[in-house]
Design brief:
Layout lengths: L3 E5 L7 H14 L3 E6 L2 H11 L3 E5 L8 H12 L2 E6 L4 H8 L5 E4 L4 H24 L1 H45 L1
Parallel strand pairs: 1-2, 1-3, 3-4, 4-5
Length: 183
């Protein structure tokens, strides 16, 4: 079985010529089929629906109405296609946003090509395993969807709890300030 990978990349900026060539070389070396290459989030969604790749290699820094992370989330939610997200900055905010797509990996764009190749191998293995599992046990496919949904709910609950804690801290600070003014 050929592994079909779709590359969603921003082709401008300091990295691209080397990075795009390097990614193309990796895909060729791994004997993966390049199902498509796009430059916007909207194009990525359309290409994913058309080509149904096993895995998306996503540039999280795409410009436009929809960045790469938002597209990866939408593609996973609609089509169940996993991704590897490459981003200029892999800070906490980027990782939290990308986590909604349940990616195989979130990597900094300066990651060595060997790390990207390892993530591609892992993503292909996950995709093949899930496909085999779904063929053998349709109920397991539903179970995987439930697990993915539960993970998203848990992440949402963590965000709500963090926001509640910040609100409580802010309110406690205001109350303490009023108490100081009264005394």
């Amino acid at each position: 079985d050929d592994v079909r990978v779709s590359v969603q990349a921003h082709l401008e900026g300091p990295h691209p010529p080397d990075q795009v060539l390097g990614l193309t070389d990796i895909l060729h070396t791994l004997e993966y089929v390049l199902a498509g290459s796009v430059t916007s989030g909207q194009e990525a969604i359309l290409a994913a629906a058309e080509h149904q790749p096993d895995l998306m290699l996503v540039d999280g820094d795409l410009k436009g109405e929809m960045d790469g992370i938002a597209a990866a989330v939408e593609i996973h939610n609609r089509l169940g296609i996993r991704s590897i997200v490459l981003a200029e900055q892999c800070d906490r905010t980027v990782r939290a946003r990308a986590a909604e797509a349940l990616p195989v990996a979130i990597l900094d764009k300066t990651s060595p090509m060997s790390a990207i190749a390892d993530a591609l191998r892992m993503g292909a293995a996950v995709s093949r395993a899930l496909t085999r599992l779904a063929r053998r046990e349709p109920a397991m496919s539903n179970l995987m969807e439930v697990i993915d949904t539960n993970k998203r709910v848990a992440e949402l609950l963590v965000r709500v709890a963090d926001e509640a804690a910040r609100t409580i801290q802010a309110q406690a600070g205001k109350t303490a300030e009023r108490a100081r003014r009264v005394t």
